[in-house]
Specification:
The protein has eight helices and 103 strands. With 1442 residues, it is mainly β. A hairpin with a 2-residue loop joins strand 23 and strand 24. 32% of the residues are buried.
């Protein structure tokens, strides 16, 4: 059953609905009445519509099948718009299949939305949502300008359709008093319950009951919305800062439709993201299994905000990312031992919790640490309670990407008793030293003020935006040509107005159309029109538009109208060349505003170049016209070339923005064909002009005339000067001037007489762009020659100098450009030589990238170091990496990645020795460029440099000195730590630390005469170095030795030990004695050998010398040891011999009995002591032992060994030890036996009622083993268990008691000895038919048997010893007829009526229960059973244990 919830939406006025859940996921059902009539039902979907993603222009539809009685009506709607237009939306119903269809023919992008389907009848309604996504095709002409205008006005909100449910800050309406921010509910629905209190406090909510009630309602609604798109939503983790400096949040869910879209929002604004980790985008959303991880890199303060993740239009997760800064950072704290230390900081924005770290470990509230936050959440404190020396270290506070840290220095309490812990102190050390409350109040006021200012700015910005939108009007400008003719200006204006963006509409080619109308090129699928060339028409021939926005060339059109080029995607029309027309031939407009060349147009009118976006017209060359051929105006104010115009008028180049005219070349005119003036003051080329006048090249900025080549003139045709200073070719000109000879293809010059030759020819060279280049040819004779480039003759000018010095010919390019690349040939007569010049650039780095790369990379030991350097892609580019001048190769710990536009270097597991210069080199044939960086690997410093020098030593002070370490580990040494060890002790004690500038230390806590060792550590932020230790101990003050002890005395001697004793010295010189050193000297030698080291003194005045040789004689002496060392030796002792004293033999802890299984070996070991060694003798039963019995005698032990024992070896063995002092005896009984054989047949006989005599034949081993006995077990048909009824029987009979009639009995008899049990002998069955002694009835008939009997105890009481306070059960079994009366007694006192005992009697089983045993419950318990025939009783003892 699903829980029903009352709802009010979707029902009639005053009607209450009950929310129910459908079996189909995603369907919401509202039932109008609580109980449905029989046979009636509310609407439901058996098939719901499926989300659809379709291409624009296709047929889209949704299908649904609904059920319900009465039959429901189906209505369709959409979230953002209506569906009333029958041309776009059609609802249909098929009664055969019961399908409701919602159709959208020729679907448009604006129809993409979330659609709803409602099924209603009088008992309820069912609703389901479905998403339609429409893929737009191509670029819309009408939509593009609108979007560009919106983007240009920074109105991105209209461009992005989807919006978060959280309104962006700029659009937030002013909240009413008491109104709750929508973020509050979004955060609560994604937060853990433990965070509810914090969020409520942050938003000022105090009514938790109301909050929880409303939150549960919102959660149910949200879960139903989420169920339409996802399932198994879990593991929501809020945003947090990672160790690599990125921020991320994650959650897990399964998409019902894998094609569902996922959107990310920040403060209500949708943000773009990539699905792979890369360097291009800031935000990334990765999927790992079911887990979705959102991360962002390069964190900045503006990244703080409210982040949400939606699937389609349903929110899945919300989290708040806050960034704060530290106004007051934590400061270093110096605390005494057992004192509290306080770290304090103030942050710039309220934050409920900071992350505190101590020695790189996170800290939490507990017994050791207190984490405190002020009410305004600006002041944060960490209290380290009960500081100990081990708490010393670096503590840090982290707030997002911001952190601060400081040292905690704990000083030992010198006043504490030695070996005891000092008392806990109530004082606190530390704090920031500033008025934190004042800083926090100022910050709070600042935040309030900023909040108000922000509101005012938003309000002012809205008003300004509204005024600007009302006043803004579209401005349209059209560039007019710089030509003086009115017709050209009109044409340019017309072209500007007709230049539009190209659509994706496709049409075929319309070439060579003979028509009196208009011949235009068709549009191709790529968006371009085919060439409208060769069309003979009296109308207009224009090129079509390509997909890139350009029109194809409108060339070759013979028309009396206008031949114009089409527009390219860059906005420019193609060349309108070769059009023969009586009208006007103009170039089309490019997207950059320029028109293509309008060349080759034969017209009686005017041939003008088109206007480019930069304001310039394309070349108006080749126009045959009786009028004026002028170049169009470019945006820079210049006209394009007006060349090739056949006109009776004037052919002049147009003016460019830089003030220059384009080339006016090739104009057939009776007038003057001159090149236009450029901004640099030069005229463009006036070449190819057929004129009776003078065709001269225009002057360029460098003052050189442009090319005047190809001109048919009676005057001189001279080559013009190029902008680079070189003269253009003056070739091909029909003139009475000078023509130069040609060159052969093989580069050799033709013979010019005198057999000239080339001694040094040309070769291929590489030239750097912007740098000079020189080519030299050396002849064997002084002769003339000519230079050619790519077949065209070269002359000095335009950046080229040609010189001749005797037989040396030089061509110098003053500043190389890309146009200078080509094949150069020198020709002299029939001789020629050639070489290719290639102009290129040396590789370059971007200044920003170079600056970024130059920053040092700092890593710690064991970490990886990465370097990355972007560069422009180039051919033949070699990338090399170097470290300290040595090239690095890929492999091992080095990883080099080469991409087209960057290279990366990764050094794995860096060591301190890897510190150095890292260099990247880019090299191509034109040169190389390098960029350097530094790799700094941080490590612990090296040990301080030794040796340790003793500056001063007195009775109270020792001063030492050392040198700084050679390697500081990459970061400066902060301090030195000094430890001390007292001689004779193993513990090192820290004395303190000194700053890095000081390399000496004075130890004032020393004792006169004692020796100390010191070790010094260097410390930097990475840790401690290895220690530098003093070579020898340093004594405090001068040496004071003790006087000699008393002469040693020999207490006792043995062959292994000599015991000594002595008296302390009479004069210890005022220095306490800590022990003694003992020395020995062997007789007839002069060397004294120490038996113990000075640092291992003998603390007592006696000593056992065990390092002796048996029989050798020794003398000993003793020295007293104090803090200064060993003093004078005592007089030597008397000579002592290492031998045992004479003693009578005695045995040590022997065993007197031994049992061995027959067949095993017998080994009897006897240890003894005697001096001199005794004579050992073994006897068996007072007789000498047999020869096969072995006796093994060693020092202090004798063994008797029988290899394989037999029963006959059982005897008493005696060992006898005798020496000159006396003798000793000891007896050992050895019993050799085996498992006994089973007894003989068992017989049963009843002599008395209730008793059966059990007898058996003895075991064959009874005579051989006097320790053999018998065990009897009994089995009856009632218990069906074998139990031992008799043990250790040395007789062959046993009488069984309590044998009852009607029960079968069985008996088993075992023989047992020291080896174990034998197999049993089984008795015959004893029962009703067994042999029994007949019992006389005394004349009483068997029919008159009486069942009356006196009481008897079947199961007696057992002994109990329970612990005090435990419970106790005590039971026994009683039988009797008539039923006896049972009484319980404790120490002869009846306890039947005592409430401390619970007594029961059930079918003869008498029980007593004590709940808790007391001390007075101990004693003798007795059960007495009495009836008319007699009495029976049993007793036991109860002992209560503590």
């Amino acid at each position: 059953m699903f829980k029903r919830t009352k709802v009010t939406d979707g029902t009639a006025t005053g009607q209450v609905g009950f929310r129910k859940k459908s079996k189909v996921p995603g369907v919401m059902i509202t039932q109008y009445i609580e109980k449905l009539p029989e046979g009636k039902s509310h609407p439901d979907f058996t098939r719901k519509p499926i989300a659809l993603t379709i291409q624009e222009g296709k047929f889209a539809f949704f299908k649904a099948i609904v059920t319900g009685d009465p039959k429901p009506t189906v209505v369709w709607s959409r979230n953002n718009g209506d569906v009333s237009d029958p041309a776009r939306y059609q609802s249909k119903y098929d009664p055969n299949s019961n399908e409701h269809t919602f159709e959208m023919p020729h679907v448009k992008p604006d129809q993409a939305d979330t659609y709803k389907c409602f099924a209603k009848n009088e008992y309820g309604q069912a609703m389901v949502t479905v998403v339609l996504n429409v893929i737009e095709v191509g670029f819309k002409m009408t939509k593009a300008p609108q979007q560009q205008a919106e983007v240009a006005n920074c109105n991105f909100k209209k461009v992005l359709k989807r919006r978060s449910k959280v309104v962006p800050k700029a659009e937030e309406p002013e909240k009413k008093e008491g109104e709750i921010d929508p973020k509050f509910w979004e955060l609560l629905m994604s937060a853990d319950k433990k965070d509810y209190e914090r969020i409520c406090a942050e938003f000022g909510v105090t009514d938790f009951r109301w909050m929880l009630k409303k939150l549960n309602e919102m959660k149910r609604e949200r879960e139903e919305e989420q169920a339409e798109f996802v399932k198994n939503l879990s593991d929501l983790k809020p945003i947090h800062i990672n160790a690599d400096g990125t921020a991320s949040f994650e959650l897990e869910f399964d998409l019902l439709d894998p094609s569902s879209s996922i959107y990310l929002y920040k403060d209500g604004e949708m943000i773009p993201y990539t699905k792979e980790l890369g360097d291009k985008m800031k935000h990334c959303l990765r999927k790992v299994g079911r887990k979705y991880i959102f991360s962002m890199r390069d964190l900045m303060p503006e990244d703080a905000g409210f982040y949400q993740l939606d699937v389609e239009d349903v929110n899945m997760f919300s989290t708040d990312f806050k960034m704060v800064d530290f106004l007051v950072k934590i400061q270093e704290v110096k605390a005494m031992e057992r004192e509290d230390a306080v770290f304090e900081c103030v942050i710039s924005a309220p934050l409920s919790k900071l992350m505190w770290f101590g020695k790189n470990m996170p800290l939490e509230q507990g017994d050791k640490y207190d984490i405190e936050v002020s009410e305004d959440k600006l002041i944060h404190r960490l209290v380290v309670k009960d500081c100990m020396v081990v708490d010393k270290g670096i503590y840090a506070a982290c707030a997002g990407i911001k952190s601060c840290n400081a040292w905690l220095v704990v000083e030992a309490d010198k006043g504490a008793p030695k070996g005891k812990k000092s008392a806990r102190k109530t004082t606190r050390a530390g704090g920031s030293g500033t008025d934190l409350q004042k800083v926090a109040q100022e910050q709070q006021q600042k935040l309030d003020k900023e909040r108000e200012e922000r509101k005012e700015k938003i309000k002012a910005a809205r008003e300004a935006a509204a005024e600007a939108a009302a006043a803004e009007e579209p401005e349209k400008t059209a560039d007019s040509g710089a030509g003086k003719d009115k017709g050209a200006a009109v044409e340019v204006e017309r072209i500007d107005k007709t230049s539009v963006a190209a659509t994706t509409t496709v049409a075929g080619d319309s070439g060579s159309g003979h028509s009196a109308g208009k011949a235009s090129g068709g549009a191709k699928q790529d968006g371009s029109h085919a060439d409208a060339g060769g069309g003979h028409s009296a109308g207009k021939a224009s090129g079509g538009a390509k997909q890139d926005g350009s029109h194809a060339d409108a060339g070759g059109g013979h028309s009396a109208g206008k031949a114009s080029g089409g527009a390219k995607q860059d906005g420019s029309p193609a060349d309108a060349g070769g059009g023969h027309s009586a009208g006007k031939a103009s170039g089309g407009a490019k997207q950059d505003g320029s028109h293509a060349d309008a060349g080759g147009g034969h017209s009686a009118g005017k041939a003008s170049g088109g206007a480019k976006q930069d304001g310039s017209h394309a070349d108006a060359g080749g126009g045959h016209s009786a009028g004026k051929a002028s170049g169009g105006a470019k945006q820079d104010g210049s006209h394009a070339d007006a060349g090739g115009g056949h006109s009776a008028g004037k052919a002049s180049g147009g003016a460019k923005q830089d003030g220059s005219h384009a080339d006016a070349g090739g104009g057939h005119s009776a007038g003057k064909a001159s090149g236009g003036a450029k901004q640099d003051g030069s005229h463009a080329d006036a070449g190819g002009g057929h004129s009776a006048g003078k065709a001269s090249g225009g002057a360029k900025q460098d003052g050189s005339p442009a090319d005047a080549g190809g001109g048919h003139s009676a005057e001189e045709a001279s080559g013009g000067s190029r902008q680079d200073g070189s003269l253009a070719d003056a070739g091909g000109g029909h003139s009475a001037g000078k023509a130069s000879g040609g060159a052969k293809q093989d580069g050799s010059l033709a013979d010019a007489g005198g057999e000239p030759g080339i001694t040094s020819g040309l070769s291929d060279i590489l030239a750097t762009r912007g740098q000079p280049a020189e080519l030299t040819v050396k002849m064997n004779t002084d002769c003339d020659g000519a230079w050619f480039k790519d077949g065209e003759p070269l002359k000095s000018g335009g950046g080229i100098s040609i010189t001749k010095d005797a037989n040396i010919h030089k061509l110098t390019i003053h500043s190389c450009r890309d146009t200078d690349s080509g094949l150069l040939r020198f020709v002299s007569g029939d001789l020629s030589t050639e070489g290719r010049i290639t102009v290129g650039d040396v590789p370059e780095f971007d200044e920003d990238d170079l600056h970024k790369f130059s920053k040092p990379v700092i890593v710690r030991v064991g970490q990886n170091a990465a370097f990355k350097m972007p560069f422009q892609p180039q051919e033949s580019l070699t990338v090399s990496w170097f470290k300290d001048g040595t090239e690095l190769k890929d492999g091992g710990g080095v990883k080099i990645v080469r991409e087209p536009n960057h290279s990366r270097l990764l050094l794995r597991d860096c060591l301190r020795s890897d510190t150095g210069e890292i260099k990247i080199q880019l090299k191509n044939p034109f040169g190389a460029v390098e960029a350097t960086s530094q790799l700094i690997v941080l490590d612990r410093p090296g040990p301080p440099e030794g040796p340790v020098e003793t500056v001063e030593t007195t009775s109270s002070v020792i001063e030492i000195k050392w040198n700084p370490p050679k390697d500081d580990g990459g970061s400066a040494v902060t301090n030195y730590i000094i430890e001390r060890q007292e001689r004779g002790h193993s513990l090192w004690t820290k004395l303190g630390d000194v700053s890095a500038e000081k390399t000496s230390f004075r130890d004032r806590n020393v004792t006169h005469g004692k020796k100390y060792s010191y070790r010094i550590y260097a410390e930097n932020p990475q840790g401690l170095s290895d220690s530098l230790e003093t070579a020898d101990s340093i004594m405090a003050g001068i040496m004071i030795l003790s006087g000699p002890p008393g002469k040693p005395k020999v207490v006792s001697t043995s062959k292994t030990c000599i015991n000594l004793t002595w008296t302390p010295p009479e004069d210890d010189k005022g220095v306490p004695i800590i022990g003694y050193q003992v020395e020995k000297r062997k007789k007839d030698t002069n060397q004294w050998l120490a038996l113990n080291a000075i640092n291992e003194p003998i603390e007592d005045v006696n000593y056992a010398v065990k390092d002796v040789t048996e029989g050798a004689e020794y003398e000993f002496r003793v020295s007293a040891i104090n803090e200064s060392g060993a003093g004078d030796a005592s007089p030597p002792s008397a000579m002592a011999c290492a031998k045992n004293p004479n003693m009578r033999p005695c045995f040590k802890d022997p065993e007197d009995f031994l049992v061995v299984r027959a067949g095993n070996s017998v080994r009897v070991k006897i240890s003894y002591e005697a001096e001199p060694p005794p004579h050992i003798t073994w006897l068996k039963d007072d007789e000498p032992i047999a020869p096969w019995i072995n006796v093994i005698n060693t020092e202090g032990m004798s063994q008797l060994v029988i290899p394989s024992s037999k029963r006959s070896d059982s005897a008493i063995y005696t060992i006898k030890a005798k020496n000159s002092v006396g003798e000793a005896f000891f007896d050992v009984e050895v019993r050799v036996t085996d498992e006994p054989k089973c007894p003989g047949p068992v017989e049963l006989e009843q002599t008395v009622y209730g008793k059966v005599a059990v007898s058996w034949v003895p075991s064959p081993d009874q005579e051989l083993d006097d320790r053999l006995y018998y065990v009897v077990s009994q089995h009856d048909s009632n218990t069906r268990m074998w139990k031992t009824v008799a043990d250790r029987l040395f007789a062959n009979t046993y009488t069984a008691h309590n044998i009852l009639p009607g029960i079968e009995y069985h008996f088993r008899v075992y023989a047992k000895n020291d080896m174990g049990l034998s197999d049993p002998s089984q008795s015959p069955t004893w029962g009703a038919n067994s042999n029994r002694v007949p019992i006389s009835s005394n004349g009483v008939s068997s029919m008159e048997i009486s069942f009356e009997r006196p009481p008897s105890i079947l199961v007696p009481l057992k002994v109990h010893t329970p612990p005090k306070g435990y419970q106790l059960y005590m039971t026994c079994a009683v039988r009797g007829c008539p039923t006896p009366n049972v009484s319980w007694y404790l120490n002869n006192t009846c306890i039947n009526s005592d409430k401390n005992y619970y007594i029961t009697n059930s079918c003869g089983v008498c029980s007593m229960y004590i709940l808790r045993v007391r001390e007075n419950d101990g004693g003798e318990y007795r059960v007495v059973a009495v009836n008319s025939l007699g009495k029976a009783e049993c007793s036991t003892k109860l002992t209560v244990r503590d």
